[in-house]
Structures are given as C-alpha cells and as structure tokens.
C-alpha cells in the first residue's frame, strides 16, 4: 500500500511541477512583479504538502516559526530528502533564492521556473569560481530582499549520518553581514534520499534562533551553524527512537 500511495503521489508531483512550473515561467517572461514567481512557488509547496498528507499520510510539525526574521537572511538547512526542497517553499517567506547545482536548470519547465525565481545555479566542479559566484550573486539577492537558501552538506545525507559542511554559506554570511537562520528536521526517516516510497508519519522541523554574523569569521559561523543543526537533528532522532520504544 505504501508503494501504491507513493506512486500516486509521484504522479501528482510531476503534474504540479508542470502546471506551476509553466505559471512561474510565464510570470517571469511577462516580467510581472518579481514576487509573483515566489508566491506561485509557495503555492506549489503548499499543494504538495497537502497531497503528501492526503495520499501518503505524511505530515509535519513545525517549531520555531517565530525565529523567521522580517529581514533577508541566509537559510542553512539539513538536507536528507526531497521533502525539504518542497516544504521550505511554503514554510519560509516566498521571496527566496535557492543555491543549487547548475544541471537542474537544464530540465524543461522545472529549470525555466528556477530561472524565473532567480535561483543561483552553481557548477560544483568550479571550485573557487563557484564560491565567488555564490558570494556575488548571493549578496545581490540579499539586497533584493530575498532569503538565500543553502544546503551546506551539498547533497542528501541519511538520518544519523553527517557530512562536513561546505564553507560557502558561511562566507556569504561573513561578506554580506546578514544573519543565518539554521533549520533541522528528520524528513529522511519518512522520505529516503533514494527510492520512491514515502512512509506515513510526522516530520519534525525545527527553525533555530537567528545567528548574527557581524564580526565573526566564516569558519566560526560555519562551526556555530553546524553545531546547532547537527545537535538538534540528533535530538530529534533520539526523541523519535524513544517514542518508538514506548509505543
């Protein structure tokens, strides 16, 4: 039953990407208000969160919404599955700029929508040039009032595992002077980093206190962010295991 429900959701996911992707692309082509692509992307995120709940029995619980600032910031988030790439579109203010691998921009409709919403497409093999691009375009997006969304681990990491955090997001924070908003969750428990199945349950999402960056080195910022996210992710996983033993 899980496989059937997951396949059904996957079909709806593709349909929503086509419909909302075209709407976002058209909004970009028509040069409507620059906020329209983000608003439409937020509606796409909400639609999929509701579909996941209705079809797969997969819901979420959010803590720390009050920590989201009313000014632009750099969002550094734990990366375990595809879920957070969908959910953050709705859970965070709609005016966003995502840092992602350049290959995604080549996907028809999906890539067009990313371009319309001012994504920062990085060549991950470009080394220092990629970091330079991230800082230059990131500062530009922050000045536009956007939140820059980054997965510092660079790739999806299974629950309980840990990959060294890349320095790019922390460098952007240091150079721009903007604060960092850390986010931890356990989405990978229910939506694996590989595979079709989405298991029923409640994903725990915690938005941490804003981390101010003025006067701090990039290395210090990175350590502070990594420490908070990893400790909170571990706390969520420990709480889940304790709950399972008690049930």
Tell me about this structure:
β3 (96-101), α4 and β4 form a beta-alpha-beta unit. This protein has a single domain (2-246), classed as Glycerol-3-phosphate (1)-acyltransferase, CATH 3.40.1130. 48% of the residues lie in helices and 15% in strands. The model has no long low-confidence stretch (mean pLDDT 94). It is globular. It has 7 helices and 7 strands, in the order ααββαβαβαβαββα. The longest helix is centred in the last third of the chain and has 29 residues, at 218-246. Strands 1-7-6-2-5-3-4 form a 7-stranded mixed β-sheet, with helices on both faces. The chain has 247 residues and is α/β, with parallel strands linked by helices.
Short recap of the structure:
The protein is α/β, with parallel strands linked by helices and about 250 residues long. The protein has seven helices and seven strands, in the order ααββαβαβαβαββα.
Shape: globular
User: Helix proportion of residues, in percent?
Assistant: 40-55%
* Topology pattern, helix = H, strand = E: HHEEHEHEHEHEEH
What name is given to the CATH topology? Answer: Glycerol-3-phosphate (1)-acyltransferase
What is the typical, i.e. mean, pLDDT? 94
Gyration radius over CA: 18 Å
What oligomeric state do these chains adopt? single chain
Are there runs of 5+ residues with pLDDT below 50, and where? none
- Count the beta strands: 7
**Head-to-tail CA distance between termini:** 22 Å
Overall tally of structural domains: 1
Could you say what the CATH architecture is? Answer: 3-Layer(aba) Sandwich
The CATH class is identified as Alpha Beta
User: Structural class, judged by helices and strands?
Assistant: alpha/beta
Strand order of the largest sheet: 1-7-6-2-5-3-4
In percent terms, what proportion of residues is strand? Answer: 5-15%
């Amino acid at each position: 039953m899980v496989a059937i429900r997951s396949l059904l959701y996957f079909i709806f996911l593709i349909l929503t990407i086509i419909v909302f992707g075209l709407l976002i692309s058209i909004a970009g082509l028509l040069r409507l208000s620059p906020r329209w692509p983000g608003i439409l992307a937020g509606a796409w995120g909400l639609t999929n969160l509701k579909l996941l709940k209705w079809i797969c029995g997969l819901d979420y619980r959010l803590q720390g919404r009050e920590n989201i600032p009313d000014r632009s910031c750099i969002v550094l988030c734990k990366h375990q599955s595809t879920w957070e790439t969908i959910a953050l579109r709705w859970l965070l203010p709609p005016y966003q700029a995502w840092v992602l691998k350049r290959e995604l921009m080549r996907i028809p409709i999906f890539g067009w929508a990313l371009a319309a919403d001012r994504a920062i497409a990085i060549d991950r093999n470009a080394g220092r040039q990629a970091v330079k691009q991230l800082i230059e375009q990131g500062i530009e997006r922050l000045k536009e009032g956007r939140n820059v969304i980054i997965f510092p681990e660079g790739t999806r990491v299974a629950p309980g595992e840990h990959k060294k955090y890349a320095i790019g997001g922390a460098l952007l924070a240091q150079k721009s002077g903007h604060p960092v908003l850390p986010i931890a969750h356990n989405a990978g428990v229910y939506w694996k980093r590989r595979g079709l199945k989405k298991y029923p349950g409640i994903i725990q999402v915690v938005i941490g206190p804003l981390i101010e960056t003025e006067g701090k080195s990039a290395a210090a910022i990175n350590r502070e962010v990594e420490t908070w996210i990893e400790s909170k992710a571990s706390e969520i996983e420990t709480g889940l295991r304790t709950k399972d033993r008690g049930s």
